[in-house]
Amino acid sequence: MSEADHIQRFAISAESESETKTVVEARDFEFVIDEPTALGGTNDGPNPVEYLIGAWAGCLNVVVHTVGEERGIDLENVEIEIQGDLDPRKFLGAADDVRAGYQELGVTIHVESAADQETLDALSEAVEERCPVGDNIGNPTPTDVTIEAN
User: Fold this and answer.
1) CA-wise closest residue to 44 among 53, 31, 57, 34
2) I need a labelling partner for 35 at 20 to 30 A (CA). Which of 5, 24, 126, 133 fits?
3) Over 90: is that where the pLDDT of 2 sits?
């Protein structure tokens, strides 16, 4: 079986409802992305960078449970906190010498477990290595953005 036989494609479609509000469809689900009122939005949903780290938290949750189960580690009450700092000046066109995205992200996964810290450290390392969303955040991923007239 070739490597290509293992590839799964994921896709979404999104439609702009306003300058700040987007409705996204993913499989049979729909969700709203919007900016807070302080950034000109209507605050009808999390903003794009909040969804990004929210997606990472969701992925980390799946992976920590999967790897924990594989290793026989009982995990209860998993809670994930992610925080990051972002300088909006590039997005706003006010500076070219800063990144448009997060400058740094930090994750803390809180668990109740009888496992010792060495076991939890090894679990953390494996989870970070195996999380698809974390992989995309932590490593360059080729992108191709095209704008076409209808």
Assistant:
1) 34
2) 133
3) no
